[in-house]
Design brief:
By secondary structure, the protein is of the alpha/beta class. The protein has four domains: 160 residues, MoaB/Mog-like domain (Molybdenum Cofactor Biosythetic Enzyme, Chain A); 48 residues, Alpha-Beta Complex (Molybdopterin biosynthesis moea protein, domain 2), CATH 3.90.105.10; 84 residues, Molybdopterin biosynthesis moeA protein, domain 3 (Beta Complex), CATH 2.170.190.11; 69 residues, MoeA, C-terminal, domain IV (Beta-clip). The protein has seven helices and 28 strands. The strands form eight sheets. It has a six-stranded mixed sheet with strand order 16-13-17-21-20-18, with helices on both faces. A five-stranded mixed sheet has the order 8-5-7-6-9, with no helix packed on it. Strands 22-25-24-26-28 form a five-stranded mixed beta barrel. The longest helix has 19 residues. Bound molecules: ligand LQZAQKY5 and molybdate ion.
Length: 395
């Protein structure tokens, strides 16, 4: 059997980072920056007030209380500014440019709030409540480096330096295609022999949680022809495809039957539990990577975490490798099949312990939903006594 590490290595050697595109800011959330973002001007571009109050000369308010004439009113956005002469005050709002001559701002709370004259009750040092030009960023300064994932705050600084578009690797578009004649759409009545399709929802959501754009394709039954038709239709918008089901040893395995003859997708047994039957390769003219995951709900989810998630990171232009692990002390003993790496479902506690959930079958979706970690048991270990330190993958 192929090892988990060899399977991941093959996947990572096959998938490529997506080409960068000029993305509108509205489409850039989660994308990976592929250029340096530089501020063309200083930020803030001009000295401005940090508070609503009065711009004055510090020397004029050395002795308080003092009453000064209010010679002007400046709102944020004002560009017609009267200079502040000795003994004058200008009413000023937060963000408004500080007029020439003024060297300090007195918050309105320290005054009587007058509009013709103002009486100031507290003195303020020079530079009080003034935000200086370039205090955030200097002109020509790099504000974001290539390889940065664009989150809300990063979008903010990109817009803040005046950019409308940015060169970035987009979110990988991943089509999720469930197969199985037994699958019914959630929300409909189950007929005898049917179950509700859950994998396509789990996997589409897992794609989104991993920084991709997930699209759930209509499910197909057990007919390889119908599967190929649906795959062809979906390939147009896919940077990668995930299928679930139809990859093991049964009489009706549409994914395996349809893809094996292409010669570009390999179906193998990987030495892991769950998730043993795996298919991986490329399809279509554009050599789109395809992950043919096993149908058992826990198996497909674990396979996603181990193989698809790292691949999506690579497609996003990020460092990619096996999932990050930690260590915890296991509550209760564990068993694991010889020669296979087990990924048991557990609840990781803040006290540093991990408790296996009840129900470790590959079909036990409720137990998976109750878990927050995978407990890794190496290939050569079959029994883990209670209290042993084990490797865990937080979910
Ligand atoms: N003779 C053998 N039988 C099986 C082997 C084997 O080596 N020899 N491997 C077993 C293992 S391990 C797994 S995992 C499964 C993989 O099966 P398939 O990928 O072919 O998946 P299906 O047969 O279509 O379904 C398996 C199971 O999962 C349920 N399922 C499928 N799709 C969904 C979905 N979208 N939502 C919810 N549940 C789904 C399906 O009803 C089956 O119960 O094969 C074993 N058998
Ligand atoms: O290896 Mo299968 O994935 O156990 O259920």
């Amino acid at each position: 059997m192929k090892s988990v590490d060899a399977h991941l290595a093959e996947i990572l050697a096959t998938v490529r980072p997506l080409a960068p595109l000029e993305l509108e800011l509205e489409r850039a959330l989660g994308a990976t920056l592929a250029e340096e973002v530089v501020a063309p001007v200083p930020l803030p571009p001009f000295d401005n007030s940090a508070m609503d109050g009065y711009a004055v000369r510090a020397a004029d308010i050395a002795e308080v209380p003092v009453t000064l004439p209010v010679i002007d009113d400046v709102a944020a956005g004002s560009d017609q500014l009267r200079a502040v002469g000795p003994g004058h005050a200008v009413r000023i709002m937060t963000g408004a440019p500080v007029p020439a001559g003024a060297d300090t701002v007195v918050p309105v709370e320290w005054t009587d709030g007058g509009t013709v004259t103002v009486t100031i009750g507290r003195t303020a040092p020079e530079g009080n409540a003034i935000r200086r030009a370039g205090e955030d960023v200097n002109a020509g300064e790099v504000v974001l480096e290539p390889g940065t994932v664009i989150g809300p705050a990063q979008l903010g600084i990109i817009a803040g330096v005046g950019r409308r578009r940015v060169l970035a690797r987009p979110l990988p578009r991943v089509v999720v295609l469930s197969t199985g004649a037994e699958l019914a759409e959630p929300g409909t009545q189950l007929q005898p022999g049917q179950i509700w399709d859950s994998n396509s929802f789990t996997l589409t959501a897992a794609v989104r949680a991993a920084g991709g754009e997930g699209f759930r394709a209509p499910t197909v039954g057990d007919d390889p022809g119908a599967f190929i038709d649906q795959l062809d239709a979906q390939l147009l918008r896919a940077d990668a495809v995930i299928t679930s089901g139809g990859v093991s040893m049964g009489a009706y395995e549409p994914v395996k039957e349809a893809l094996s003859p292409l010669g570009t997708v390999r179906f193998e047994k990987v030495a892991m539990q769950p998730g043993m039957p795996q298919g991986f390769g490329v399809v279509g003219e554009d050599q789109v990577p395809i992950f043919a995951l096993p149908g058992n709900p826990v198996s497909s989810f674990v396979s996603f975490m181990l193989f698809v998630r790292p691949a999506l990171r690579k497609m996003r232009g990020l460092e990619a490798g096996p999932p990050k692990t930690g260590t915890a002390y296991v509550v209760g003993a564990l068993r694991s099949p010889a020669g296979r790496r087990s990924f048991l479902r557990g609840v990781l506690d803040e006290d540093g312990t991990v408790t296996p959930v009840r129900g470790q079958g590959s079909h036990q979706l409720a137990a998976l939903a109750a878990a927050n970690a995978l407990i890794v048991v190496p290939e050569d270990v079959t029994e883990v006594p209670a209290g042993t330190a084990v490797e865990v993958i937080p979910l």
